[in-house]
Amino acid sequence: MKKRVKELLADADKKTLTVYFILRFLVLITLIIQVIHQNWQDVFLCFLTLILFFIPFIIDKRFKIDLPTPLEIIILLFIFSAEILGEIQNFYGLFHYWDTILHTLNGFLCAAIGFSLIDILNRSDKLHIRLSPIYVALVAFCFSMTIGVLWEFFEFGADQLFNLDMQKDRIVTQISSVTLHPEHKNIPIIIDNIESTTITYLDGNEVKQQIISGGYLDIGILDTMKDLIVNFIGAVVFSYLGYLYIRNRDKYKLAENFIPVVKK
């Protein structure tokens, strides 16, 4: 096992390795703490994070694809921010925009990956086609949005099957719904300035109530749409950078920091 790990890390850039070892150390500390507190779900997340850390190195070594150093570092930081900080340290709950930042970054990175896949084919001597810059940018955008939608499908499925609340619920103070119309007409009834909501439910044979202070509990939809919107923004930003890069590779070199290339 150690030999395989050394092989994966052998050709890695020094900056990437530095970030990797720092983050791995922090994950191991977190793992020990979670074992002491017997938080086994968080222990699993720590092991999962350690495994995910190898993704950039596996891509580089096994698939002969060179990931730029900035991209490798961002991927490692993204994994750490999502799993350790987001889930275990509850940054999703403590910082309202933490999830938004990560989904925006995800849209940007996925567009970079989609862009590189097409750009590699576009520059290959084996193919006799040359796609226009705007088409390559469009494919990169569509690739990113597809990944974003599939992830939201995953979150929805996990919530429905395992009650995980990956689609974080939000407190809202206004609702507009045709379901509330007393005559069941297709006319939305607007309720504004909601101060609290009372949920009455059965726990066995006992009737219980749950009071939600501050408004009405929106079940996931606002989080899902917000995630897709910021994924859209991230995808648009990189697709535009990629478009400029293809038009003039010498002038717009910023995109090179995020575009994987096939090793020669």
Descriptors:
264 residues; 3 domains; two-stranded antiparallel ribbon; 9 helices
Describe the protein:
- The protein is an alpha+beta fold.
- It folds into three domains: 1-93, no CATH class; 96-168 and 219-264; 170-216, no CATH class.
- Helices cover 60% and strands 12% of the residues.
- It has a two-stranded antiparallel sheet. The chain has a two-stranded antiparallel sheet with strand order 2-7.
- Strand 5 (196-203) and strand 6 form a beta hairpin.
- The chain is flat, with a radius of gyration of 23 Å.
| Helix and strand composition category | alpha+beta
Give the count of helical stretches: 9
Domains counted in the coordinates: how many?
3
Portion in helices: 55-70%
Q: Summarize the main sheet.
A: 2 strands, antiparallel
Terminal CA distance reads 28 Å
Low-confidence stretches: none
Shape verdict? flat
Biggest sheet strand order reads 1-8
- Pattern of helices and strands: HHHHEHHHHEEEEEEHE
- Total beta-strand segments: 8
Rg calculated over all Cα atoms: 23 Å
Mean pLDDT: 90
Write the topology of this structure.
Layout: H1 2-9, H2 14-36, H3 40-52, H4 55-62, E1 65-66, H5 69-88, H6 91-94, H7 98-122, H8 133-162, E2 170-172, E3 175-177, E4 189-191, E5 196-203, E6 206-213, E7 216-218, H9 221-247, E8 261-262
Antiparallel strand pairs: 1-8, 2-7, 3-4, 5-6
Helix pairs in contact: 2-3, 2-5, 3-5, 5-7, 7-8, 7-9, 8-9
